[in-house]
Amino acid sequence: MAAYVSGRILSLVLTTLAASVVVFLLMQLLPGDPAAVMLGVNAQPETLAALRRQMGLDEPLLTRYLSWIGGFAVGDFGTSYTYSVPIAELLGPRVMVSLPLALMAMAISVGVALPVGVYAAANRGRAGDTASMGIAQVAVAVPNFWLGLLLILLFALELRWFPASGFAGWENGLWPGIRSLILPALALGLPLAAILARVTRSAVIEALGEDFVRTARAKGLSRRATLWLHATPNALIPVITIIGLQFSFLMAGTIIIENVFNLPGVGRLVFQSIAQRDLITVQSLVTLLAASVIVVNFLVDLAYGWLDPRLSTGGAR
């Protein structure tokens, strides 16, 4: 098990470094000069050169990368070109919006998908299976930003149960903060739940056809107990794989949803930084989002080893 974990940690570090290189190079290929954007088209060449030196843009590419990634490794993400403050200071309050939003969306996705998928598998070919998978198929095709607008129209403007936009702030209490995130979390989580429900159904149906399920039934175990105690746990590996993959889609969807609901989160900061040509902020935030996805995939790999010990011992190979 120790060798399995060590190998995954090494893969985590190398993948994160590779992602940082790709993001850094892509930022350098973008047209335009951040210093020129900040000073405007009428800036004097001397002033422009001085600002480029101050921002470190006149240094060699490798030097700039090593300086940036060295600081990134210890939590120093650089200083924002636009706001002239450390990016970590900008990031702190916004993480307290984006992280709860992502966790709520993932909880909605898993909480809806697993029961629906298992129910559909247990009633394969019946009306309940057809109806639930039909709804899931429609939900897969619905863009999360469009679903967000529909939720605003119904629950915010018509029923007035939740705010249409903005974030109440955690300093005003736990419920006001959660209430501000319920509609965005639903807009993010429900389309993901539709995908996960279909995967869960397929995995459970496959598990129900295995020999160990027939053996459990032959020993007198009830159909319900066999479904939940044997088939469902053994169907979790492909389900967990999809949950890990969905996290990356969740991060991308957060950028859109936070703009739809006007939430002061990391996604909105990325959008604003792109619009303002704040390349160092975009570079650090995108790398941080990529690293979070890599860490989630690392945790998924560890979950594989826990669910199926053969993977961690090499038995499956």
Automatic annotation (TrEMBL):
<comment type="similarity">
    <text>Belongs to the binding-protein-dependent transport system permease family.</text>
</comment>
<dbReference type="InterPro" id="IPR045621">
    <property type="entry name" value="BPD_transp_1_N"/>
</dbReference>
<dbReference type="Pfam" id="PF00528">
    <property type="entry name" value="BPD_transp_1"/>
</dbReference>
<protein>
    <submittedName>
        <fullName>ABC transporter permease</fullName>
    </submittedName>
</protein>
<keyword id="KW-0472">Membrane</keyword>
<feature type="transmembrane region" description="Helical">
    <location>
        <begin position="285"/>
        <end position="307"/>
    </location>
</feature>
<feature type="transmembrane region" description="Helical">
    <location>
        <begin position="134"/>
        <end position="157"/>
    </location>
</feature>
<dbReference type="InterPro" id="IPR000515">
    <property type="entry name" value="MetI-like"/>
</dbReference>
<keyword id="KW-1133">Transmembrane helix</keyword>
<feature type="transmembrane region" description="Helical">
    <location>
        <begin position="101"/>
        <end position="122"/>
    </location>
</feature>
<feature type="domain" description="ABC transmembrane type-1">
    <location>
        <begin position="95"/>
        <end position="300"/>
    </location>
</feature>
<keyword id="KW-1003">Cell membrane</keyword>
<keyword id="KW-0812">Transmembrane</keyword>
<dbReference type="Pfam" id="PF19300">
    <property type="entry name" value="BPD_transp_1_N"/>
</dbReference>
<feature type="transmembrane region" description="Helical">
    <location>
        <begin position="177"/>
        <end position="197"/>
    </location>
</feature>
<keyword id="KW-0813">Transport</keyword>
<dbReference type="InterPro" id="IPR035906">
    <property type="entry name" value="MetI-like_sf"/>
</dbReference>
<feature type="transmembrane region" description="Helical">
    <location>
        <begin position="227"/>
        <end position="257"/>
    </location>
</feature>
